[in-house]
Design brief:
The complex is a heterodimer of chains A (67) and B (371).
Chain A lengths: L3 E3 L6 E9 L6 E5 L9 E4 L6 E12 L4
Antiparallel strand pairs in A: 1-2, 2-3, 2-5, 4-5
Chain B lengths: L1 H9 L3 H56 L8 H8 L14 H23 L5 H34 L2 H30 L7 H10 L4 E5 L2 E8 L2 E8 L9 H9 L8 E9 L9 E5 L8 H12 L4 E8 L1 H5 L4 H21 L5 E6 L9
Parallel strand pairs in B: 3-7, 4-6, 4-7
Antiparallel strand pairs in B: 1-2, 2-3, 5-6
Helix pairs in contact in B: 2-5, 2-6, 4-5, 5-6, 7-11, 8-9
The chains are: A mainly beta (67), B alpha/beta (371).
Chain lengths: 67, 371
Amino acid sequence: MMSSVPGPDKKTKLLVYTIEECPVCGQKTKRAFTVGDYVTKDGAKCTKCSNQTRVSLVYAEGTKPSG
Amino acid sequence: MLSGNVLQALGIDSNTIFLIFWVGFFFVTFFYQARLQSYMALNDISRGLNKLKLMRDKARKEAIDYLVNVGKTTNDPTQRVDQFLDYVTIMPVDIDPAGLVGKIDHVVTTNNDRVRAEVGTLLGQNNPVTVSISENLLEVATSLNAIHKIVRHFYLLGKKTNSYITLLQLQMLMPMIIQEADALLNAVDSFKLGQPVGDGIGPVIVSRYMAGKEKRAVAKDTVMAITEYKGRKLYVLKADGPMAYVGQPGVAIKKIMGDMGVKPSAIVMIDAALKLEGEKTGEIAEGVGAAIGGIGVEKFQIEEAATNAKVPLYAILVKQSLLEAITVMRKEIAEAADKASQVLNRVIEEKTKEGDDVVVAGIGNTLGVAQ
């Protein structure tokens, strides 16, 4: 489920992302946050070296309204 | 035309009319200015009060919906939630301040235990994340209920006593009260989804030092791991995540330095700090002292333990607004984690030497941040 919350100025929407990081090669993958994600949770296999990734950050980023 | 003729017959020209108007205007503003401003203040406050009521109702509804849909309550929780909103915590008397912190700690701990026990009985499951989120949602609804009641009290008091000064003060405070209430309401979305909040930046940073290490409980809802950094032994602690806990870092530090007999060369605390208007979100500030908010009990315990053992307290702060601290973590705050980790490493290297013990505490709500 893609999570979005109103931004501080009410016009921008904040989209929430989960960052998965490979502890071996440092490769970072950004994907939409899903309920149940938390920092240090095991993520998917690394696309570069196939090692187990871990969630390193969960954060919200503002999207500018179009028009 | 007829009215013009009548005025002419009475000997009143346009200059006289203007004069009467200005005299009337002067009379009204001179004698009724305060009453007019009271009327305008009452209107302003009334609008704000309606907003606060809507916010309170929304937070209450969200809490009930969460208890029913996620918490799987077996009975309708509405009545219990309404009772919960009006529950009060009576702070101890402070006319004899000796031992006051201990008394406050006792009252607050009793209240926290009661909240958890009550939420536990309401829910049809005992998942600790769900229980902690329910606790936080009910606390948000309780806070909004209290804000609404206090503002309503002063509004009605000012109206009843026709107190211009009371109303004016309340009118001036309303924008800030609404802003704070809005921040609380926005926190509901993050809590419901279990997303880390801005206040959780301290736990995010220390969780990196705890990853893969054995964790042990050192206080209620608080865990610690022992790790090493450049020849120093680090005792790293944070609240037990990914639950929405803040833990008891004061009790934990006292235990590490007391029961466990650790003699640290430094205590480093990492926390979110409220920024001043004009400061950038995610800015890092360094300092000395106990970096921890709250009612003051934990801060007192940490300061006492550090002072007794003559251990320096260092603080690393990540700046953010109140809204950012209690809603989903912003990118600017999350990205400050790397910089804050570098600052933490530098502080450890500069302030301690190889073979020393160091206590590192990540302070804040640890929702969505495990270890």
